[in-house]
Each structure stands twice: as structure tokens, then as C-alpha cells.
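Internal ticket #5521
Category: modeling
Description: The requester needs a full-assembly model to guide mutagenesis choices. All entity lines are attached below as received. Residue total reported by intake: 726.
Assigned to: D.W.
Attached entities:
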Amino acid sequence: MKKLFLMMLTLTMVVVLFASVSAEETFVFKHGFDLDYPPYSYINDDGETGGFDVEMAQAVCDYYGWEYEAVPFNWDAKDLELNAGSCDCIWSGFTINGREDDYLWSIPYSDNTQMIMVNKNSDIETLDDLAGKVVGVQTATSAYDLLNDEEGQADLCKTFKSLEVYETYTIAFNDLKAGAVDALAIDVTSGNFLMSGEDDYKFLDEVLGSEQYGIGFRKDDVELRDKVNAALEALVEDGTYDKIGQKYPEIYDFLCLGK
Amino acid sequence: MTFSKMLSTMSAGMLRTCGLFALTLLLSLPLGMLVALLRKSRLKIVQMLTRGFISVMRGTPLMLQLLAWYFGPYYLFGWSIRGWRFPALLVGFVLNYAAYFAEIYRGGIESIPVGQYEAAEVLGYTKAQTFMRIILPQVIKRIMPSVTNEVITLVKDTSLAFTLAYQEVFSLAKQISASQTSFMPFVIAGVFYFVANYAVEFGMGRIEKALDYYK
Amino acid sequence: MIIEMNHIKKHFDGLGVLHDISFGVDKGEVVSVIGPSGSGKSTLLRCATFLEDIDGGEILYMGQRAAYTDADGKAVYVAPKELRRFRSYCGLVFQQFNLFPHYNILKNLTDAPMKVQGKSKAEAESIAMELLRKMGIEDKAKAYPFQLSGGQQQRVAIARALAMKPEILFFDEPTSALDPELTGEVLKVIRQLAEEKMTMVVVTHEMPFAKAVSNRVIFMADGVIVEQGDPLDVFDAPKEERTKQFLRVFEQ
């Protein structure tokens, strides 16, 4: 009887100890992202939160046994969210170029280029042909930044008749269809995404600019950044990165890790 | 994404919109009355503070207020804001609308002829009885059109919840539109808003009609 | 004496309105108060019914002090709870009726008796219906004030005041807001109350009515009582020059 009691007591203590330890140690990885950015982070066909970045972040969590928490945020408030700690990183097709010093960056995991999208039978063939044309772009994107950057393509931008700035590429694309703009300045993945299922549009061969995507961390979060980097490398190693990438054909060619 | 999937995903968003709408209304309507009464307080300091509160609430964009309520605790005091997203949203909406309602109430209260107060006083009603039994019912009738206006604005203002990444119907419309490269989500959102506001108009119309038994 | 007001002083923003007014009303007495506009008649009624606070003097109801002047010369009122008891002694009929528009006629008459005096619904309604019958408008019990003529509304207002069973009823120019053809029905009701020995003070411009119905007439001008006495004396043989002047205007 005494033995049984002692055993039960020990068992209880072990369980309590284990529970408290595990409760303390399960790290919650708060993945901050914009749901407006297909196919990196968006609402998928099932109406669920998904995308390449979301699946990769979940894979990193699985790798370490972390708890994954999705923190969809309003893109304009991303820095407020990150600094306030409501998320641990910005991981949402986030361009490194031009922001090198603003965040602590992971290794770049995807390339991207800014392109000019036009109607297939358009007379625009080169960047020079854009002179006197109306060009559309989405606000707060790399393409937009590039066209306003003196060291980027600001000079080219000055040759346009006008630059129309849109809230979303969806609306801009409709204006291209309607002929209200002659061309769109857009990153290649978003462009491919828009053009999927449409045959009437193409990119110019000439590239507007190129950039890389990474994961932005708070500057003092070195330990977490290093852990995520290590996990990314391991996931490339075991094929998970490639497997997830294959689900997103419009960006697969740009995934740059392990190449 | 199939149309029916789109519809069901957005319905979930509409439910969140309605939830925010209902909670905001439920809390801000009575709170507005409190603010209106404080605004008319005999204590100068209370009066001034309330007046200041109302001008800040009405004089700054609601979007800014939402950001301030959510991030303020962290940036001002370094408090953790985990789990504070929806409460902050609600606080922002409720206080903002309470300020607007307070001014509507005040206008209503001040439009009641002084004779009503005097008649009640001579008959021996207490101050509380006078307000609850004589003044308030008449105020409600008078302010119904302005309140209806404000309520309809609220239905549409709920879309500002996207500021704090609350997945209400308009945020969802934007996101699904981006992923589906389609305008259909906006059309659906438009229909949702219209139906919701039609319901509000209908409901408020019924109340106005019910109060129409006297002039 | 039902009410006694002694040495009442009242001023608005430093402007004197009542200068040392004293008067009392006995049970069953009907007093008419006449005088040019701005003479302080209405203010006197409003002080008597506690709508305005006096600045000096004393007010007694049923021989008990409701307000008095303390050693520093400041007017002091009894505690609010006490004051409500004093309020219950008096009723006031307004020039503008001031009925509650959201209540029907019956509710206008029963709400205060029920909520203020704690009467049962049945009792309050039986009193109310009795009064409406007396006013000749029992068929309007379920109507709302806006559906009634001015004369009918004023009769309801009188009934509402009477439903509280006051010791004394004050009237503040009860027919001034009415079309001439409607004043008669209201005056008739007041006359009827006078016959029943209801104690009343009526501020009025209806001189023939004041002469016929009241036991005493008070002529006020510039915040003082210039002359008072039996209506026949005041109207037909006024002693003061101001009174003569005022009455002359009305005779024309």
C-alpha cells in the first residue's frame, strides 16, 4: 500500500515537473505576414491561410518542435508589430534590397526581379519604348521603390507620361486590360501570378531590377535568426524546401537556396 | 477557389464584421449617454475633460486611434500586447462612437423645452425620474434620424479594423481578390454591406415608426 | 394659512425682480394677481412653487418653514427630501401647458401620483378619470396631447396638477397661449374649482374673470405689491395711481 502511494506520488511529481518544464520550453514562433501577398502568404483556394512562406515557417517550427502562431498584419503597420513584439519576424515575400540595415536578415531564400508587363500585341519592346507611356505600379512594393530611387530607375520613370500608383495590382491589372495604362511595373512572381490563365500579356525581356527575399528579424534577435537560418539549411538538405516549392510553380524557379 | 468557397470564407468575415458592429453599438450607445451627461456636469474640470475627450475622438482619424490603442501600451509602458488585438479594436471603436453619440445625445437633450423639466419638478419627480421618464424618451425620438446615420456609418467603418489585421469582410475581400486576381470578392463585400445597411435602415425605420405615436 | 411668503427678494444677474414682497393665502381663498408684464408676477409664482430660489425672505407652507434667511442674510432652503414634501403642497399650471407629449392623457395624470406618491395604478386611474370627467374630456383619456386643442390641453394640465391633491394651485397666465375662443372653457373650469373652494392663486390678464371669481386681487408693478384687496374695491375704486393707470389701459 505504502509502495503504491509512493509510486503514485512520484508519478504525479514527474508529470507535474514535465508539464511545467514543457510549458516553459515550448517556444511560440509568431510569424508576421501580410495576407495580401500571393503566393508567399495569402488566402488559398480552400479559404485557409497559406502560401510558400507560411508553409516554410510551419516547417521551421516542426523542425524545432516550436508552436506556430500566424500573425497576419496590416502591411503598413509591420514595423510597429515587429518592434512591439506581437510578431517575431516579417516573413512575407519581404525584399532585402534597400532595407539591408533596417532589420536583421536571414539568408535570402528567393530571388525576384522587377519586370515590365505589357499587352502581347503592344508596340513596347524595350524599356526605352516606355517614354511617353502610362505605367502602373502598386504602392509600397519593390517595383514602386525602384522607380522612385535615384540610384535605381528614377531616371527611366521620368520618361513616362505618368506613373499611376495603385492600392493593389489586381486593380492595376484591370486597368491594363482596359487600356487605361500601357504597362505595369511589377515583380516577376506577382506578374506570373496575375498572368496565370491569361494569354494576352507578356514581360519585356529587359529587366527593370532584381532583388532577394529574406526574413526580417528585430536587430537584437540574433539567436532566433541563427536558429531559423540553420533550420532553413536543414530543410533544404532534407528536401522539404524543394517539396514545398513545387506546390508554387509560379515562384519555383526563383527559389535560390541550395542552388 | 470556387464561388461557393469564396462566399463561405467571406461569410465568416461578415460574421466578424457583424460581431464588431454589434459589440461596438451595444457598448457605445450607453457609454455615449454617460459622456453626454459628464459633458453637462456642473464640475468645470469634468466638463473640460469630457470636452477634450470628444474633440480628440472626433478630431483624429479612427485608424490612428486604433493603432494608438493597440500599440500604445507597448510603446508607452513596455507592456506585452499579446491577446490585446481584439480588445484594443473594441476599445477604439467604442470610445470613438461614444464620442459621436454623446454629441447627438447632447443635442437631443438640449432640444427638450425647459418647460418639461419644470413640469416634472413641480410634480415632484426626482432628477433621475425626470431624466429617465420624461426627458430620455423624448430625446430618443428626436435623435433617431442622426443615430441611424451614425449606425450606418459604423457598418462601413468596421472595415477600418483591417488596420489591426482583424479579418473582417473587407480585409478578406482585398486578400481574396489578390489571391484570385478577381474583383468578385469586392462585389460580394458590397452586397454584404448593402444588405447589412438595409437591415439597419429597416430596423431603425421600425423603431422610428414605433415612436411616431406622438409629436 | 396655506402659504405665507414674507419679505421675498429675488434678482436675476443683479437686476431686482422682487422687492420685499409679502403675502399669504388662506384655505379656500382665490387670489388673482394682475399687473403689467415684467412686474414680477410670474417670478413670484415660480418662487412659491420652488422653481426659482429666493435670495431673501421666507416661505412657509401650512405654517412650516420651507425657506428662510439666515444670520448672514442668505436664503436657506430645507433639505431636498424635505423640500419635496413642501412641493407636494402646491401645484402649478403653466402658460404653455407643458404636458408630457410621449404619454397619453391618462398617463399624464397617473404617472406622477404613481411614481412620486406611490399610489396604486387602480387608485391613480380612478382619480384621473374622475378629474377628466370633471374637465369634460374623459373621452380623451387614450389620446395624446398633440391630438388635443389648446383649451383641452390646458384642462388636462389642470387635471394633472389636481391629481397630486395639492393644498394650493397656482396658475401662470393659464389662458395667454390660447386662441380667444378657447379661453372660456379653461376659465370655466377654474371658476368651477373656485366654487368647490379650491385654494388658488391665478396670475392673469383676464380682468373680468379676476373680478368675478377671486376673493382678493393683488396688483403688482416693478416687483412690489402696489395694492391689494377685494376685487370690487381694486377694480372699481383703486386707491393707487399706478393701479388706475394700469386698469385704464384695459378698459380701452
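Resolution: model delivered.
Comment from assignee: The longest helix of chain A spans residues 2-25.
Ticket closed.
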